[in-house]
Write a structure and sequence with these properties.
275 residues; alpha/beta; 8-stranded mixed β-sheet; 11 helices; 8 strands; 43% helix
């Protein structure tokens, strides 16, 4: 995906047992820092349209989660808790004392868990096509079936099925750049990382009880045609988080930041004025 190389830099930092790869759009005397967390099984490149459009006074960071993109696997035992603690350690390493987390899907799970662990580190949350609930038994079994399928058939069939689920019909027909980006992102992961992350998602904790304790402004976004995250799940976030606003994006599926980046970026800019 094309981006402004003079504004967005590809960076790498050593952190504990892993090397983390990230994109940095740095602002001098930044008013805010927005940290973007990708979904499963994608990588930081899905946030390039957002980094490109951030106001000049806002620093943007898009991180590859452990075992995804160009970040290394480390010990290989994945959990949403591990991902959240990686994130907190990463922010400390970069001396980022306050940030706004923007997470889609799995990135939203990580954002909610990171806020649970260290709420004082964040001044706002943007939660896109995500929710606070743990997997029920049916969802766990579906993930276990996906693991067996990846082990038997490899990444290609998995990526084709996944892409058909995450995009709206309009996006599948008209937004080939986004579709191709997500296909290539999935195929860049190893089978073992995909399977380890599926186990991590199946075992994640439920963060619903702590939603009422979120004291920062929160923007909840959902694609109207999302087949993965339901409106009812988004409603839980909006009803339980005290200072929350809900935006539904038409003709978008599970990845509205890629399906309608202009509208998604406007919502981010408007949200930053609330903080």
């Amino acid at each position: 995906m094309e981006y402004k190389k003079n504004l967005i830099k590809r960076k790498r930092i050593r952190l504990g047992d892993i090397s983390i790869s990230y994109l940095l759009k740095e602002a001098l005397d930044a008013e805010h820092t927005v940290v973007f967390l990708h979904g499963f099984p994608f990588n930081k490149n899905m946030w390039i349209p957002q980094l490109d459009s951030l106001p000049s006074q806002v620093t943007g960071i898009a991180v590859d989660v452990r075992g995804h993109g160009n970040s290394t696997v480390g010990h290989g035992f994945f959990s949403v808790d591990v991902f959240a603690k990686d994130l907190l350690a990463f922010l400390r390493k970069l001396s980022v004392k306050k940030s706004i987390l923007c997470g889609v899907s799995m990135g939203g799970y990580i954002a909610l868990r990171a806020y649970q662990i260290q709420p004082e580190a964040f001044s706002g949350l943007i939660l896109s096509d995500t929710h606070s609930l743990a997997d029920d038994n049916a969802a766990k079994l579906k993930r276990f079936d996906s693991i067996q399928s990846v082990l038997k058939n490899g990444r290609r069939p998995f990526s084709i099925g996944f892409v058909n689920n995450v995009f709206s019909q309009k996006s599948l027909l008209e937004n080939r750049d986004a579709v191709d980006l997500i296909k290539s992102s999935i195929r860049r992961n190893t089978e073992s990382s995909i399977c380890a992350t599926l186990l991590a998602l199946a075992s994640r904790t439920d963060t619903t009880d702590s939603l009422k304790d979120i004291t920062v402004p929160v923007l909840v976004i959902r694609g109207a045609e999302d087949k993965i995250t339901t409106k009812e799940q988004a409603d839980i976030l909006v009803s339980e988080i005290p200072d929350s606003v809900y935006v539904e994006m038409t003709e978008c599926g599970h990845l509205p930041n890629l399906e309608n980046p202009a509208s998604f970026n406007r919502e981010i800019t408007a949200f930053l004025t609330r903080i």
